[in-house]
Amino acid sequence: MVILRSQQAGGHVTDRTVGIIGLGIMGGAIARNLVARGWAVAGFDTEPARRSELALAGVDIVDGTSAVAARASTIMTSLPNAGAAHAVAAEIAACAIGERIVVELSTFTIADKVRFKQILEPAGHIALDCPLSGTGAQAAVRDLVVYASGDKAAIARCGGLFADFAKQSADLGEYGNGSRMKFVANHLVAIHNVASAEAMLLAERAGLDLNQVIEMIAPGAGGSRMFQMRAPMMASRLYEPATMRISTWKKDMAIIAEFASEVGCETPLFAMTQPVYTQAMAMGLGDQDTAAVFEVLKAGGP
Question: How far is the C-alpha of 63 from the C-alpha of 66, rounded, in Å?
Answer without folding.
Answer: 8
